[in-house]
Amino acid sequence: MSAREPQTGDTVLWHREPEQTGLQPKPLLRGWLQETGLLTARLRRLCASEFRLEVLDTQSGQDEPTEHDFQRRVILHCGEQPCVYAETVIPAATAATHPWLNELGDEPLGERLQTLPEVHRSEFRYALLTADSLPSELAERHQMPLWARQSDFHISDATLTVTEVFLPGVVDNENRRMKLAD
Questions:
Q1: 38: closest CA among 156, 162, 178?
Q2: SS3 of residue 20 by DSSP
Q3: Could you tell me the pTM of the whole model?
Q4: Could you report the per-residue pLDDT of 12-62, keeping only the tens digit for each?
Q5: SS3 annotation, 111-153
Q6: 111 in the Ramachandran plot: left (φ > 0), alpha (ψ -120 to 50) or beta?
Q7: Residue 7: pLDDT band with limits 50, 70, 90
Q8: 26 in a domain, yes or no?
Q9: Closest listed residue to residue 135, CA positions, set 64, 57, 61, 45
Q10: Average pLDDT of span 136-150
Q11: Which of 5, 8, 148, 171 lies most in the core, judged by the most C-beta atoms within 10 Å?
Q12: Residue 88 belongs to some domain of the structure
């Protein structure tokens, strides 16, 4: 199944390795890009009590006709600093099989998926996104290219696609943590 590029643009070229974009991510960011554990767990460790998830919007195919039943866009923050933009696209068949996906609210998707049996994640695909391939609220604030990764989650026979865009706040908070540790 080929993944649909979410609002991060239909012209995005996804790669199997970050270097295939023609650039290399800085080592600190590479660790985040290739993190196989939950980003929310890693951000909670980094930010402690300052972690929060902001739901930007959710769209159901019942509200307006789309090829997908549900789309959810969130930003993961360390305090007031946005660190990761995440977009989940859930096909209608997956939403019908797993209606709880429509009711997540401000609960992190990864934390819920981790509690389920038979969940498998595909390999990551990587891209370097320019402002014209970002959602408008990100494009306005970020003129420099941003690293992103995309993967599919398989819950038994159902699939959903998650795209995560790494904002400068992730590296800023890592640098701050390292300076405090010195």
A1: 162
A2: helix
A3: 0.86
A4: 889 999 988 888 899 989 999 999 999 999 999 999 889 999 999 887 655
A5: HHHHCCCCEEECCCEEEEECHHHCCHHHHCCCCCCEEEEEEEE
A6: alpha
A7: very low
A8: no
A9: 57
A10: 86
A11: 148
A12: yes
